[in-house]
């Protein structure tokens, strides 16, 4: 029987979409508050099989009722919600994938004292990232990427695509102009629907 590695800090859990990972690390609390190590590069590298060499750290804030969706980019991304409730339908948009078109629903609630303080890892190459704000608090989240922002590598799919049929928990969401006009899966991948 293998003994647990005493040096490991995180539990890295796979989701139903290959490459999309949930990272859970212990939250150490005392009278002052808490300490949380969000991730260790060595542990993530062990899981994904290649280096996640971050070059950019970004902070985004979204108000309740906002949907940012569905975005796919040309880089690996590690998302950490700091405040608020993150509702994240994640979509496999890799046409060669056995799970193409699958939606994985991930909710991270960091409004509670007993929150697990999870992080979400999204691999490059066709994973659609969505952010929806639940509750009444703004959602602040930080994310690390391993390539600098390049608008030409950022693509989108319609947030209300009928083939994805995502169950959004808000009516009349606040959307960017870009997100209002993203193409559907059928427009982007007609060959996947011609059978």
Automatic annotation (TrEMBL):
SUPFAM superfamilies to which the protein is assigned, alphabetical: RmlC-like cupins
Molecular-function annotations in GO: dTDP-4-dehydrorhamnose 3,5-epimerase activity
Alphabetical GO biological process terms: dTDP-rhamnose biosynthetic process; polysaccharide biosynthetic process
Leader sequence segment: none
InterPro entries in the cross-refs: RmlC-like, RmlC-like_jellyroll, RmlC_Cupin_sf
Site (Participates in a stacking interaction with the thymidine ring of dTDP-4-oxo-6-deoxyglucose) location in chain: 149
Record-linked Pfam families: dTDP_sugar_isom
Active site: 71, 143
GO cellular component labels: cytosol
Gene3D superfamilies: Jelly Rolls
Name of the protein: Putative dTDP-4-dehydrorhamnose 3,5-epimerase, rfbC
Organism of derivation: Candidatus Woesebacteria bacterium GW2011_GWA1_40_43
């Amino acid at each position: 029987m293998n003994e647990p590695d005493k040096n490991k800090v995180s539990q890295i859990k796979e989701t139903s979409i290959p490459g999309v990972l949930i990272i859970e690390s212990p939250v150490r609390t005392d009278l002052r508050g808490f300490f949380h190590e969000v991730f260790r590069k060595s542990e993530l590298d062990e899981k994904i099989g290649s280096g996640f060499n971050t070059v950019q750290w970004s902070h985004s804030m979204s108000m309740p009722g906002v949907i940012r969706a569905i975005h796919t980019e040309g880089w690996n991304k590690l998302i950490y919600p700091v405040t608020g409730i993150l509702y994240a339908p994640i979509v496999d948009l890799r046409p060669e994938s056995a799970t193409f078109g699958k939606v994985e629903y991930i909710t991270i609630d960091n409004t509670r004292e007993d929150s697990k303080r999870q992080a979400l890892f999204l691999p490059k190459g066709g994973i659609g990232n969505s952010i929806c704000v639940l509750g009444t608090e703004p959602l602040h989240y930080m994310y690390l990427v391993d390539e600098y922002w390049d608008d030409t590598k950022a693509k989108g799919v319609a947030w209300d695509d009928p083939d994805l049929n995502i169950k959004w928990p808000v009516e009349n969401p606040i959307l960017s102009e870009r997100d209002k006009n993203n193409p559907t899966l059928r427009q982007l991948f007609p060959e996947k629907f011609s059978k």
